[in-house]
Specification:
Blueprint lengths: L7 H8 L1 E2 L3 H4 L7 E5 L8 E6 L8 H8 L4 E2 L14 E4 L1 H8 L13 E5 L6 H4 L13 E5 L7 H5 L10 E4 L9 H9 L6 E8 L2 H7 L7 E7 L5 H8 L8 E6 L2 H10 L6 E6 L7 H7 L12 E5 L2 H7 L2 H16 L5 E4 L1
Parallel strand pairs: 1-4, 3-5, 4-6, 6-7, 7-8, 8-9, 9-10, 10-11, 11-12, 12-13, 13-14
Antiparallel strand pairs: 2-3
């Protein structure tokens, strides 16, 4: 480990980005920790860092010194490519539990601005979730969480993210959730007041969520909001109207063309990107045709990128002259406008 022989400016660069906590734990006294092979890792390319004894106050000065230099944590963890000579070392959940129970309470990464929690490469991540709040703090501005599978501890962790009140960019698109977990996401959104971009796999567009988002004057990106069959489009349109002036990118999943039209029309934003997913088969309905008339309205004339998922097959499958005519008009408008540069229909 480079210490006194390396100037602070070089240390700042070396420690600015950290993919795991292992290097930070390893700056503490050697008798505190040990590295073991994972029992199920036949290739010996992953190892586990554990504690040998309890943490004492005298163990912490070096950890605190280097931790203050970290600005980005966990980003691109999935890109780690272990080898037999350079295995990945992951911190066991008991280490985080020990640090989390230490008194006075530790804020382990006080200056981190960008944080990614990725469960895919880390065999201990799910078990560590109850203790991850020691990583959170007011300096975090960008937060991302990735998980291929749902887990019962994830909603509990969502409740601790408001410890980062200055999060401006929230990305949970690659976080697998069960339907009951959506309530935890909704509560999280309602407790974050500095948001500029939101990317969630499914965000129920409830009245409470809309009212809160309407107070976020700097919100630029919003996705994916779900316009479900139980959502009253007209009522939400009233809540939206007059707000969201700075919104530029929106992703909508719709179950009803009529509700989607009312909600999208209520936005006063000059959108540049619209990403829409259709889960309805009613491509031959008048509400579908009326929805596409929005593309000639003033508030959508600034679009430079439009992506429509699961739409083309529904339109073609319906064989509705009205639906096909609406889609044809959309293509014509895209080709004839100098601003609309990209169209994707699937």
């Amino acid at each position: 480990m480079i210490t006194e022989a390396c100037p602070d400016s070089a240390l700042d660069i070396l420690w600015r980005e950290q993919k795991t906590l292992a290097p930070l734990i390893q700056v503490m006294p050697n008798d505190l920790w040990e590295v073991e092979d994972l029992p199920d890792d036949d290739d010996m390319k992953m190892k586990t860092l554990k504690l040998r004894r309890v943490v004492r106050r005298t163990d912490l000065p070096r950890l605190e010194y280097y931790a203050r230099k970290i600005r980005g944590f966990g980003e691109h963890t999935g890109d780690l490519e272990p080898t037999n000579h350079c295995p990945n070392i992951f911190v066991h959940e008991t280490v985080l539990a020990a640090l989390g129970s230490y008194r006075p309470v530790l804020q382990l990464l006080p200056n981190v601005r960008r944080m990614t929690i990725d469960s895919s490469p880390d065999p201990h991540m799910f078990a560590s979730i109850p203790y991850l709040q020691i990583l959170l703090g007011p300096a975090v501005e960008r937060f991302e969480m990735l998980s291929d599978t749902p887990h019962e501890n994830i909603p509990e962790f969502m409740a601790s993210i408001p410890l980062c009140p200055n999060i401006a960019h929230l990305d949970l698109r690659k976080l697998s959730l069960e339907p009951p977990d959506n309530l935890a996401i909704e509560h999280l959104i309602l407790n974050l007041k500095a948001l500029r971009s939101i990317n969630v796999s499914n965000l129920p567009f409830s009245r409470d969520v809309v009212r809160h988002l309407a107070t976020l004057g700097m919100l630029v990106t919003l996705g994916r909001v779900v316009v479900g069959p139980d959502i009253n489009g007209a009522e939400l349109a009233q809540e939206i109207s007059g707000h969201f002036q700075n919104l530029k990118e929106i992703e909508i999943q719709t179950h009803d063309w009529g509700a989607a039209k009312e909600i999208l029309q209520a936005f006063q934003s000059n959108f540049t990107k619209l990403y829409m997913i259709s889960t309805t088969k009613k491509a031959n309905s008048p509400s579908f045709v009326n929805f596409f008339k929005l593309f000639t309205a003033h508030n959508l004339s600034s679009l430079s990128e439009v992506t429509l998922v699961d739409l083309g097959k529904n339109v073609v499958g319906s064989r509705s002259p009205l639906a096909l005519s609406a889609l044809k008009s959309l293509f014509s408008m895209i080709r004839g406008s100098p601003r609309q540069q990209k169209l994707g229909v699937a």
